[in-house]
Amino acid sequence: MSESLTVLEQQRSAILGRILSLGDFRSGSITSITGRCGKPDCRCHKPGQPGHGPNYRLTRKIRGKTVSETFSSPVALRKAQREVEAFHQFRALSRQLLEVNEKICRARPPEESLTEVEKKQPKQSSTRRRGK
What is the pLDDT of residue 1? Predict the structure, then answer.
């Protein structure tokens, strides 16, 4: 059974309200990096040592280029994690909004009527004519 237009519009309003309440968000992925530095006498080059890190980075695409951002503190990392999570929620809500809007478009009746000229125009045939 299809949902009524009123119910669909209420669903759309609820989704938009949830989008507005997201706060700050940004795209990207947060990854941890560990590695060895370039100093040969450093502890990270000794056998059994894990290396430096983990260092966390936010990686994302901007105009087709991959851009990485490192974090100056654990507080900055937690802030970025919240923003990336909010972005994932935004994407999910955007998909839901699109689905509801498509249902609304199918359910809403046309509001305007045909003009006299449009009424008199012949309908195009769905069969293909062959040339002689």
Answer: 44
